[in-house]
Design a protein that fits this description.
Elements: E1 3-4, E2 8-13, H1 17-28, E3 33-36, H2 51-56, E4 64-66, H3 74-77, H4 103-107, H5 117-131, H6 158-169, E5 175-176, H7 214-220, E6 224-226, E7 230-236, E8 243-249, E9 255-265, H8 269-278, E10 300-310, E11 326-328, E12 345-349, H9 370-383, E13 384-391, E14 400-407, E15 413-418, H10 423-442, E16 447-450, E17 454-459, E18 485-487, H11 502-518
Parallel strand pairs: 1-9, 2-3, 2-9, 3-6, 4-15, 9-18
Antiparallel strand pairs: 5-11, 7-8, 8-9, 10-13, 10-16, 10-17, 11-12, 12-13, 14-15
Helix pairs in contact: 1-7, 1-11, 5-11, 6-10
The structure holds flavin-adenine dinucleotide and iron/sulfur cluster.
Length: 522
Amino acid sequence: MPKTLEAVEVVVVGTGATGSLVAAVLAEAGKNVLVLEGGHARKLTDLYSSQTWARRLKWAAPEVFGAGPDSIWFNFNAGHGYGGAAVHHYAVWPRFHEDDFHEKTQFGRSLDWPFEYSELRPYYDMVQKEVGMSGDAEKEIWRPAGDPYPLPPVLVSNHGKVLARGFEALGMHTSPIPMAILSQPYNGRPACIWDGWCDAGCPIGALANPLAVYLPRAEKAGAKLRPDAHVTRVLMDSTGKKATGVEYFSPAGESFIQPADKVVLCAFTVENARILLNSADAKNPNGVANSSGTLGQYLMCHPAVGINGLFDDDMQNFLGATGGQLLCQDAFGKTSDPGGAFGSRQWEIGLALKPNDLLGIAMSRPDIFGAELHGFMQDGAHHMGSMVGVCEDEALPENRIELSSEKDPFGYPLAKVVYKAGADGVKLWQTAAAEGVKIFQAAGAREAWHGPQGGQHIMGGTIMGADPAKSVLDSTGRAHDVPNLFVAGPGVFPSSSAANSTFTAKAMAMKSVRFMLGNWGA
Ligand SMILES: Cc1cc2nc3c(=O)[nH]c(=O)nc-3n(C[C@H](O)[C@H](O)[C@H](O)COP(=O)(O)OP(=O)(O)OC[C@H]3O[C@@H](n4cnc5c(N)ncnc54)[C@H](O)[C@@H]3O)c2cc1C
Ligand code: SF4
């Protein structure tokens, strides 16, 4: 028998990028907030700048099965425990552009958001001030309207300067990359020391991960955090239209019922959809918040390509942040692809390199071993350059999160992801791969190559929309079917842009939470 606990006003599920923000803002407004986190507790001082440590931050369980021809790189893209994926995210935070919000209306592709950029802009401005973003709004010539960044840009080492040469030679533009990393001390947090350990979590708190900004704020304001509490279902009343709380399990298998007036799911894209699908009951036979049948659909993942090259220059490639130094969004126009593919692209330029590990020097040439690898490492440590191209993925209903026939230890079906990268996204990726090598050659690389197609940022599955018959959530992130149930995170996006997802997910979470506070009794 599950144990029923004392009721709270709001239960937030997940302590990552969005859960931490939601908890902080609600607790600071005086609400009684409980945050349930499926993984372990950790503090900023528990982080270590080591690749072995970085592995501990990856997704732990439950397993997510892949069932389509392409992978969404779930284990690379997800995180577990306090801070979620956001603990080891790289903090590249460009805004979505105006076009991203109305692709269906303007181009007949993907889906429209239920509002325009102008409605999200104040929340971008609010969040960038709270976390202390670094950048140069004027030099970022593609950026939509917004307040200037509170801090000057992040470091540009020789790595960025050499690669910028290639863009310039081809008539392309670069700007400082917008980052949620402190270029100067800010609100009691220290400035970045440019040691490139962001992938292991930034132990000094210069990167705005949840352990550095919103979780401390949430706890200070009285929110309670409960780790090792794996949420399995949203519980509903007999009308099937009101959430009464959630069910969760401890690692030992004890089950609990946590009653709450409001439920906010922030358990990342796949797990949010899985929880809602697993919450099916007599009144909601296809899952909670799924009268439209779109729950789980429109899963998206940016096709990404890594470009590497060797230069005669001393690249200082060990310096800087993991996410890069410069940005190029010259190909952000939805119809700018020379081959006619639909969608936007961007370059993140000058990623700080480590000798090994996932994005390290050795992994850029997985085909060489022994003496050849030894020579390559000596060369690469001083002379390798690196950048990543990110491409838009079209929102397609056939790409989806479903329930598998396999079950977790608590008896609930695991998630199964059916995914095939959109044809246009693949074409954009091909253009990017060829263009990237050309840029490196124009920058003076004596050798340049690209890696295989990867996936960055997982979006969709619990999409917002104006029409309750075609979407899961309304324009505030609230379930059309269940007025006291909200979802936050990149899973709410109806289209993917080519911009990294976290700034937009945070801005949207801020919009949701402000709406909640303004309509508390409704
Ligand atoms: C290596 C890496 C680099 C990245 N770089 C960037 C970048 O540069 N820019 C960018 O914009 N984005 C980046 N991202 C993506 C970014 O981290 C995510 O978009 C963001 O963290 C998603 O926020 P979220 O709140 O939805 O999920 P998360 O931050 O992942 O938080 C989800 C939380 O929910 C918990 N949880 C899951 N299931 C349950 C459950 N059933 N019960 C209770 N708790 C549960 C998880 O343990 C986790 O703590 C990167 C991600 C990775 C992994
Ligand atoms: S490079 Fe900067 S943000 Fe990244 S881990 Fe080091 S100090 Fe932190």
